[in-house]
Design a protein that fits this description.
Elements: H1 6-11, E1 19-22, E2 26-30, E3 38-44, H2 59-75, E4 83-86, E5 102-106
Antiparallel strand pairs: 1-2, 2-3, 3-5, 4-5
The structure holds guanosine-5'-monophosphate (5GP) and zinc ion.
Zinc ion (ZN) is lined by residues 2, 5, 7-8, 47, 99.
Amino acid sequence: MTDSCIFCKIVLKEAQATIVYQDEQVTAFRDAHPVAPTHILIVPNKHIESVSTLETEDEPLMGHLLTVARKLAEEQGIARGGYRLITNTGPNGGQTIFHLHVHLIGGQRMRYPMG
Ligand code: 5GP
Ligand code: ZN
């Protein structure tokens, strides 16, 4: 937890968000500014700044996070049609919140660059 991190606060329910899934490792909640009918952010509960700061010990956590993404896509009814997973990394990657997250976006045919 870092005091100023909005996603840490959402994980701890100290900030409001529509949480659609949570377990001891990850939390998934609806993006505040959806770019498609389904737009969910999946985050590790522990504060990891970005893919750039991942450690080898985080490999099981990230594997779990992707499995949760797959299950949520099924639950949300977008698995059959397909969906997009995006992890923006660093300023040039377009990352604006520096708590690692995977965007799960679907419900429409994707355009470039997102949604
Ligand atoms: P990034 O640009 O870092 O890849 O994505 C950050 C995402 O977080 C954006 O899609 C933005 O809409 C979303 N976001 C930013 N602040 C909040 C917030 O306070 N609550 C929620 N639910 N989403 C947020
Ligand atoms: Zn954080």
